[in-house]
């Protein structure tokens, strides 16, 4: 049976060093066993290609960890294995997350010749003192240089930033937005710093901005950044929104490959939750799937269409009583700017 196109996410769990705020599934490793890791990834790719009848792939996303650490020959092996087992769309978006301390012009050019056409650079801040405080393995110059190299290569370029670090104010976030505007990016992400237990920051008793101060900073981003928001933390021109993430937020299926990956697979009309191990995947009920679609849809400006499965699980009376946070139009529910500030609470209330 012909299966729906599936996006592919490939997780690479290794980093040059561990950032002090990071709670992602990743670890610092001087010399990863790339051969072993690549072989296990390729095995999973073949497994899913067989399960999904060698279907079409609209996007591939290498995330981490730090996928820009992968040596060229292993990247080639992974992409060739996908090509040999799936039908990659002609205009597929193929993104690589990159830490500026791990990739130079030659390596990036090699990756581009293998099919990578979008780079997502982990910049975080454009001030060396702040980068040292965050425990980043690069300085601001490295980050700007990598963005320029990628732009010269005509790759689509995005960059990640963090706001809400100790001592941040509305003014410092405004300055950060001005610095970002000067980079000529068509896509960027700005994430609020959250302190997670079991990280160095989690043990440091940092003097963090209050919730109100964080909210003011968040609102100042839309006022000062040249790019419009299209998801709670993502900003882009309309033609440069991340297709991979947009597909997932829009409820399209995706395969998660690699130890820290998760996926949502659709086989013969049944949705499955899949985590880090190709051979283990469990069916989702219609209700679980509908709730997931609400969770991701409400994060986006596009919103969540009120199809019957969604109507079955939302508290429509609550929605109608809170137009300041959530609105209905064109048979779609959408989070307002104020709603984005309380997204977690909002979702708890919207779902019955
Ligand atoms: S580079 Fe990314 S994944 Fe690696 S430790 Fe830093 S924040 Fe975490």
**CATH fourth-tier homologous superfamily of the largest domain:** Aldolase class I
Write down the secondary-structure element order: EEEHEHEHEHHEHEHEEHEEEEHEHHEEHH
**Strands, count:** 17
Number of domains: 2
Structure classification? alpha/beta
Number of discrete helical segments: 13
How large is the radius of gyration? 20 Å
Description:
The protein is α/β, with parallel strands linked by helices and 352 residues long. It has 2 domains: 241 residues, TIM Barrel (Alpha-Beta Barrel), CATH 3.20.20; 67 residues, no CATH class. α1 runs parallel beside α2, α2 runs parallel beside α3 and α6 runs parallel beside α7. The protein is globular. The two termini are 35 Å apart.
Secondary-structure map with pairings?
Blueprint: E1 7-12, E2 14-15, E3 27-28, H1 34-51, E4 56-64, H2 72-85, E5 87-98, H3 105-114, E6 118-124, H4 128-134, H5 140-152, E7 156-163, H6 170-181, E8 187-192, H7 211-224, E9 229-231, E10 234-236, H8 243-249, E11 254-257, E12 262-267, E13 270-275, E14 281-283, H9 286-297, E15 304-305, H10 308-311, H11 316-321, E16 326-329, E17 332-335, H12 337-341, H13 343-350
Parallel strand pairs: 1-4, 1-11, 2-3, 4-5, 5-6, 6-7, 7-8
Antiparallel strand pairs: 8-10, 9-10, 12-13, 13-14, 15-17, 16-17
The chain binds iron/sulfur cluster (SF4).
Summarize the model shown.
37% of the residues lie in helices and 25% in strands. The chain has 352 residues and is α/β, with parallel strands linked by helices. The relative contact order is 0.12.
